[in-house]
Structure formats: C-alpha cells, structure tokens
Amino acid sequence: MVRGKTQMRRIENPTSRQVTFSKRRNGLLKKAFELSVLCDAEVALIIFSPRGRLYEFASSSMQETIERYKRNTKDNPTKPTEQNMQHLKTEAANMLKKIELLEVSRWKLLGEGLDSCTLEELQQIEQQLERSVSSIRARKTQVFKEQIEQLKEKEKVLAAENARLCEKPWKGSNEQKENVPYDESSPSSDVETELFIGPPEGRTKRTLQLN
C-alpha cells in the first residue's frame, strides 16, 4: 500500500501526535548517529518533547560541542556590531549629502536658486546647459532621420501595392476583349444607320422594299 503525502501542519489528535513524535524523534536520533559515524562529524542534537522532556545525542561531549558553537559564533558574528552600525550611519549621512547636492544642482539647472552662485559657477552651469542642448538636438536630428527613412520605406511599399492594383483590372479587361469572338451574323452587327421620319406603316413598307 502506497502511503499518502504527509501534510506539514499540526496534528490535532493527541494520540497520533505523540506516536508521530516518537517515530520522528527516533529517526532523527538515528540519522544524527549515522552522520557522526559515516562522516566523522561532530554532531550534537537536542530535542524537547511537547511535555518538556529532554532528548539529546552527542557524538563526543554535549558541553564541549556547545562551547565550540559559542566560540564559532563569537568569532563570526551574524548580527551587526556597534562598529558596523556606525559605519552604516556614516554611509547613510554621505548618501544624504550627495542627494542634497544633486537636488541643488537640479534646481540651478532649472534656473532657480542662482542668487548665491558666483560667476564661475554660472559659467559652469551655462556650459553644462549648452552641452545638454547640443546632445538633445543631435538626438532629435537622429530621430527625425529615422522617421524619414521609415516613411520612405512605407511610401515605396504603398507605391508598389498601388501599381500592382492598377495593373490587375486592365489585364483582365484586355483578356476579356481578346477572348470574345467577332460574329458577323450576330444581331448586334446589323446596325441601321438610315434615319426615317414618318408613320410606322411607311417604315414597314420601306423595310420590305429594302429586303
């Protein structure tokens, strides 16, 4: 029988929860022992049951392993120390100063806050604006050229399509005219061109005389 996948949530039934704890605890202790033997690893395992009972395993000495863990975490701290916090504060202050300088420079480029600027600063702002305008105009010219090229390509496509559409009807009408044979005996070939004025009886007699 195939077992279903166990859902990772608290088991509500106390009896089932206690049975599962006992099985998983024994399996975990066994795995810790196998890891220490097979890989020659120093393993320490501490388990507290829901009722507060202690279960532990240590490949050597639990106390020595705990002391080794403390020394290791002290030499390689994971939490920021006071020195690191001070460094972060300094970096944050420098970033704020840079942001303020950039904000002031932006306002000056917009033509505001120029009362405190010296002549040299004003000349630098003017040169920067000239370079910016030159770059903008160059980019604008490039965009215009690209749009013109695109329009030319569209014009060529439309011209070719227009020529193709104009050729189709003429070819069809010429072929139709060439395929229709000329029949001298058809009624449309006999055209009466003589003009006759008078009553219908006279016209009938004249037609008989002509025949």
Structure write-up:
Strand 1 (44-48) and strand 2 form a beta hairpin. Helix content is 66%, strand content 5%. It has five helices and two strands; from the N terminus they run αββαααα. It starts with 13 loop residues before the first helix and ends with a helix. The chain is elongated, with a radius of gyration of 51 Å. A two-stranded antiparallel sheet has the order 1-2. The chain is mainly alpha-helical. The chain has helices at residues 14-39, 62-75, 82-109, 119-179, 200-210; strands at 44-48, 54-58.
Unreliable stretches covering 5 or more consecutive residues: none
Helix fraction, binned, reads: 55-70%
Number of strands: 2
Count of alpha/pi helices: 5
Give the averaged pLDDT, no decimals: 80
Helix/strand structural class: mainly alpha
The neighbouring-strand order within the major sheet is: 1-2
Q: What percentage of the residues does DSSP assign to strands (E)?
A: under 5%
Shape: elongated
Rg, alpha carbons? 51 Å
The separation of the N and C termini measures 113 Å
Question: Element order, helices and strands?
Answer: HEEHHHH
Biggest sheet architecture:
2 strands, antiparallel
